[in-house]
Amino acid sequence: GTAVSSKTARTTSSGHSYTLQPGDVITIDGKDYKVVRGFNSGSEAELYEVTCNRKSYGLKLYRKGFKPNGKIGPILGKIQDQGYTAAIHSAGKTTLRNVIYDYELMDWYPLGSANAAGLKGNSDAILAITVKTALALDVFHKAGFVHKDIKPANILIKDKTTWDSVICDFGIADILKDYVEPTPGAKKRIDQVLRIMLTAWIGVQTIRR
User: Fold this and answer.
1) Could you read off the pLDDT of 95-104 as tens digits, one per residue?
2) Can you give the pTM of this predicted structure?
3) Less crowded by CB within 10 Å, the N or C end of the chain?
């Protein structure tokens, strides 16, 4: 795809400028996506809300010199329908002003991340999100990779009634065989924590009924 802009790059509070500006158009897989806004710009990548045929999507544009682990994409494709990851529609390379960038196009989650959800004091929401995240990590590890950057900003809220959520941003994920495995003792403690969290969640759901 190719994007063209005649506007001056905007710089964020982090000191990183946006490559794309509102109104710019980027072509991906033969479709034109219009930039609504840039909402996060870091050292690794820029994040945008874009639209196509009146539907919003999230666009992650990796900065020059950064690219995702190519081994992770095929694995994500196999587990995507399990409901633990942000739905990725397309991933690959795009050319912007004669520079090649890696990108990911995903579903748009209007409720935003757990980081901005105002969860302080909301024990039900915190428990639901924590349990879903723990279950997601279990699925990831069994699938053969580690996320390595789990934090509230990388947990997207799907529903504020059930506090269902998904994990995003696999930019620094690693294949398990390329990663230092936890010791047997650490694995045992992780399993114990997962069981405790799951038991607590089941208890809360039982009380609610």
Assistant:
1) 888 888 899 9
2) 0.77
3) C
